[in-house]
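Run folding on both entries below.
>entry_1
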Amino acid sequence: MDPPGAFADAHVASDVPQEVAAADSFWNSQVGGACGSDWSGTVLAVNIGGRLFRTTSKTLRAAPFFDSMLRHIEGGHLGMTMDEDGNLFVDRSGELFVHVLEYLRMGRWLLGDRGTDFEFVEALCREAEFYGLDGESQLPLPRLSEYVTVWQFRDDMVLYVDCSEQTLREDADHQGLFRLCKYSGGLPLDQQTGTKRFKATSHSVQAVIAYFALRGFKLQHVLDNSMITHTTSADGQSRTGSGLQYLLSRVTTVRAGSSCGSPVAAFKWQHCAKEF
């Protein structure tokens, strides 16, 4: 069954202008001409938003959009939209199609640093859906950089951890290794990331860092003699002093439902900790 919108740029064969018919003839010459012939390895040129891409029909057929289009061309049913050189033209983003084509070739998304750009990934998700790559396992997923700060005052053995609740609550077996700070843990330290403050039951820096290392975090920086403020009472009294900070980070993939855009919208911190 043809995917919705697969022929948004197509014209019905009846009343096809002479130049379109000529373009079809040129297109047929690229794929061998004979309807139903095996031309899966033939190199084809497609114009996506003004950018020319060359690939095989087998690669293109991995996308339902192109599979339907090529089957109709084989059957001679439709006159497709072509550019002035007779190449199939699709009025979509050529910049985004670079990544779509790599997915069709490799079977996975190669986004590099752009994988952490939520707006870019959402736009690419929409583009993937246009080409019929709308299964949950086919859509690109954004990646998120998570940060954890382990710290202590210079004259104190107590260790604190600033991170999101979700980072700790994903580990069902943490068994109270970290407790939400009563006075400074109720509200996020950072509204955007949902960072909260926890007190570690261990006084060993190595043990706490090892805990996060087992969960994919890597130590990035150590800051000595940094000034830290910590709320110590319900009426807002706080302590400020010199401390030692260990900054850790990891990159995770945001899992989501099947609808595009949900990878970004669904990533919300879960507030399931209780105060101690």
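>entry_2
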Amino acid sequence: SFVLAMWAYHEGMVTDPGRIPDGWRGEPDGLPAFAQETGGLCFQPQERKKTSGGYRYCNKENIFKPDRAHYCHALSRNVLRMDHYCPWFGNCVGYFNHKYFFLFLFYSVISSGVAQYHFIQALSHGGLSSMQTIMIYQGVGLSALINVFLTPFCGFHCWLISKNMTTLEFCEQWSKATSWTSRYDQGLLRNIQSVFGNRWYLWPLPVAAPTVGGVFFEANGVISLADADSARTDASSSSEQRKQERSCCRYCGKGSSSGCSGSSSGRMCASFAGCTCVFNELFQDACLWGSRMLGWS
């Protein structure tokens, strides 16, 4: 666990948390460059200015801000889906390195717990010199101190990930004393996938974090269009196609006629009745990974 923690720590430091693409540049009273091609049809962010309701714009970078992007003063630029700035990383925690930050936190808690257990076990056996006893007591105190602070912090971030919420979004809701819900909540599985990636067997390892995206998010059943290619596709689709998509399960893409219980609400498959959509993909991924390990074509 210590090796995994250090691995995740290194990846979190060297990985760019995500920056706004150049296509988002434009004049404050206009539209981003990519949106001008379609007359603004592809530019429909969910988050707006609190005072005027206009598009969020960063005067420091002269760029429009996608949903969930915020300006980091330590990095002097905007970060995609910014969570917070971590001084221990010397980096901001954003869309592309959020997985590494959480794994570092998780494995640090495990490592300090294992170390504390072995320290206490060594003290209980006895037969140690005075200097060894003092050193082990210091180890017990240090590991206990780390556990006291990191364990609740790790639990807090587990809860944030399960809600598809960032620390900044949590603090904003805390200041408003509103309910602890996120407009970007897509269900537990998809919330985890948004941070750890789609390949579940790589979730415990500090590899294969998301490498694309980070500028558009599905909010309350509506995709906040912030990607030029996705926007053009949506702008050209008919209203009938949109109705059909909304009537399908967001996980398996099937309708109620195909036996998916999640299609009626337009959400992910309902609890037990629709779990086959989730486990079917997990089973297929496991079979594909196994065949590659065994050298099968």
